[in-house]
């Protein structure tokens, strides 16, 4: 993990560890939606550090309270469950449709934003980009956060979803070529 200012989790009292951990979990969606990639990475590392220390001190408990199962899951299983839960929550947030009253004044023309995003995919190695990177670029280009989702949901899809990657399809390359020629 990277060096961060603040008290290491192992040096915190139980009460302070739990307070900071609960706060970090509560803030994770806000940091993802409104923070930079570096802030998100730092916040996630701190959140995991706090949770791991809490679980080390209290192996029969979770952030939600005491466990009741006869078998305590392994550390790897707990980490895997946490990552999968977080990944599903992030994916669900990214796939939400925009509110009907979304502000239209900010950013570029939707077709211009779409062209710029597809051009970034075309420049990426193999036309592939991690979904978090793709959504961060889309947020910089469009007035809403749903540009990427629209591109792989339309018919024919201009992007394809392959696990955590988004890939430029052949239809996307053709669309980009036809719109780059007219621009």
Record the SSE blueprint.
Elements: H1 14-34, H2 37-57, E1 61-62, E2 65-66, H3 75-95, H4 110-123, E3 128-130, H5 131-141, H6 147-153, E4 159-162, E5 165-168, H7 170-182
Antiparallel strand pairs: 1-2, 3-5, 4-5
Helix pairs in contact: 1-2, 4-5, 4-7
Account of the protein in words:
The protein is mostly helical. Helix content is 59%, strand content 8%. It contains 7 helices and 5 strands, in the order ααββααβααββα. The chain has helices at 14-34, 37-57, 75-95, 110-123, 131-141, 147-153, 170-182, and strands spanning 61-62, 65-66, 128-130, 159-162, 165-168. A 3-stranded antiparallel β-sheet has the order 3-5-4. α1 runs antiparallel to α2 and α4 packs across α7 (170-182). The chain is elongated, with a radius of gyration of 20 Å.
Q: Specify the biggest β-sheet.
A: 3 strands, antiparallel
Count every beta strand, where a strand is a DSSP E run of 2 or more residues.
5
The radius of gyration computed from the alpha-carbon positions, rounded to a whole number of angstroms, is 20 Å
- The chain-level structural class is mainly alpha
Key features of this structure:
two-stranded antiparallel ribbon, single chain, mainly alpha, 7 helices, 183 residues, three-stranded antiparallel sheet
């Amino acid at each position: 993990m990277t060096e961060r200012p603040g008290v290491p989790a192992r040096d915190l009292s139980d009460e302070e560890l739990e307070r900071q951990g609960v706060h970090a979990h509560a803030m994770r969606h806000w940091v993802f939606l409104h923070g930079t990639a570096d802030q998100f990475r730092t916040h996630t590392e701190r959140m995991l550090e706090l949770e791991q220390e809490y679980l080390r001190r209290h192996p029969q408990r979770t952030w939600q309270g005491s466990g009741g199962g006869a078998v305590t899951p392994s550390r790897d299983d707990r980490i895997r469950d946490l990552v999968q839960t977080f990944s599903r929550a992030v994916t669900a947030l990214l796939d939400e449709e925009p509110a009907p009253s979304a502000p239209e004044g900010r950013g570029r023309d939707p077709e211009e934003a779409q062209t710029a995003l597809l051009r970034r995919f075309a420049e990426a190695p193999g036309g592939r980009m991690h979904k978090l990177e793709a959504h961060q670029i889309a947020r910089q280009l469009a007035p809403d956060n749903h540009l990427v989702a629209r591109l792989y949901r339309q018919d024919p899809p201009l992007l394809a979803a392959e696990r955590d990657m988004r890939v430029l399809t052949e239809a996307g390359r053709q669309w980009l070529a036809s719109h780059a020629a007219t621009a």
